[in-house]
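Hey, resending since the last one bounced:
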Amino acid sequence: MRVLAMDTSTEALSVALRTEQGTIERGLEMARGHAEQILPLIDAVLGEAGVRLSELDGIAAGVGPGTFTGVRISVAVAQGLSFGAGLPVVPVTSLEALAFPAILAGADRVIACLDARMGEVYWGCFACDPAQGLIVLGSLQVAPAARVRLPSAGHYRGVGRGFTAYPELAALLGITLDARAAAALPNAADMARLGALRLAAGQGLDPADLKPEYVRDKVALTEAERRAAK
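The structure tokens again:
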């Protein structure tokens, strides 16, 4: 199955093309400029594989959570390409993409966390599922680190830069993780693999039905909230 995946929800701009021959990926870590770089990266992976957009089986879109602007870029580009080529699209959240490598490595349960700014983290807990790759336990949430709770008992592996931004989080949850896991960001190659599973299961969407997964509905703190935080 040929699946193009893209994600711009964090500082990691990531694009990957999964084909029968393997996966080609490109990525940049940058504070801004995702909108200007994403199409050249897509052209690069398609060109290297010698694959036209119309020859794909579908597109996997990173839908967040993450930065509001970044989430919108990923969703809009995926919609535009899907509309133009007549392809189905599948949403993959940034937290699913973070958790998936740990699931593949044998973790029973994973908690994925990203820095949500404003003193909070985006977080979600996942377990292995043979058909879908992984399933979410509960729902994706945003909260201060002190309010993050594991939804069920079990051994959890932590992953994501939320743990770097809030070092107390791992101790609060009673889990350990190495520096590599704490520095992890979502990767389009993992989104492509999850996207292929979902397309094979008939879960492709019309691009008009693709929606961002913001989780939070607030862009910034108010002046009063900033003063209180100080």
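The two ends are 52 Å apart (CA to CA).

Sorry for the duplicate.
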